[in-house]
Design brief:
By secondary structure, the protein is α+β, with helices and mostly antiparallel strands. The chain contains three helices and eleven strands, in the order ααββαβββββββββ. Strands 1, 2, 3 and 4 form a four-stranded mixed β-sheet that branches. The longest helix is centred in the N-terminal third of the chain and has 33 residues, at about 10-45.
Length: about 180
């Protein structure tokens, strides 16, 4: 008996076309499902920096990671997702920016005959959490009382009670705690 492949070729469309149709109809749904579940695994692993791309059953993790360990953890989370065959990374490591510098506050010099002068200065409002200004023997804290106010990096003190005549020392202090 002789093997004749041409005899079987007439049945190839009957076998191949349904498989091709099933792949075309379900391919996008499967990819979307894998992407959804893989992204959920990234979120659960705390990898909010990562983006996931799925091609077939292969997943690629991309983005700006804070460390090598973060990349490894993200790839491990995606690789553990059911249906993902291969997980790889094209992420890069980006060091977080340094914290802003805490600059000392300033006090503008003032010469006046007013008993309630407007004393002004600057402070690092984006870094500091508290501002304390001492005029003579009285201390004012930003947010407590209406005398000390701030707008952006500028502060202004207008004492409610008159200040005694003469020269007084005015100091400003900031804190991040």
């Amino acid at each position: 008996m002789m093997f004749r492949p041409s005899k079987w070729m007439q049945f190839a469309p009957v076998v191949v076309l349904p498989l091709l149709a099933a792949w075309m109809v379900n391919g996008a749904a499967i990819r979307d499902d894998l992407t959804s579940r893989g992204s959920g695994a990234l979120k659960a692993a705390g990898a909010g920096w990562a983006a996931l791309a799925v091609s077939g059953r292969d997943a690629t993790v991309a983005g700006d990671a804070p460390s090598t360990e973060a990349i490894a953890q993200a790839v491990k989370a995606v690789a553990g997702t059911y249906g993902i065959r291969l997980a790889r990374s094209v992420a890069r490591i980006v060091e977080p920016p340094p914290p802003p510098e805490m600059k000392p506050p300033t006090v503008g010099s003032l010469e006046t005959n007013s008993a309630t002068p407007g004393i002004a200065g600057t402070w690092p409002s984006t870094v500091a959490k508290t501002l304390t200004v001492t005029a003579g023997s009285t201390t004012y804290v930003l947010g407590i009382g209406a005398e000390l106010t701030a707008s952006g990096d500028d502060w202004r003190l207008v004492p409610a009670r008159p200040i005694a005549d003469g020269e007084i020392d005015v100091t400003a202090e900031v804190s991040d705690g």
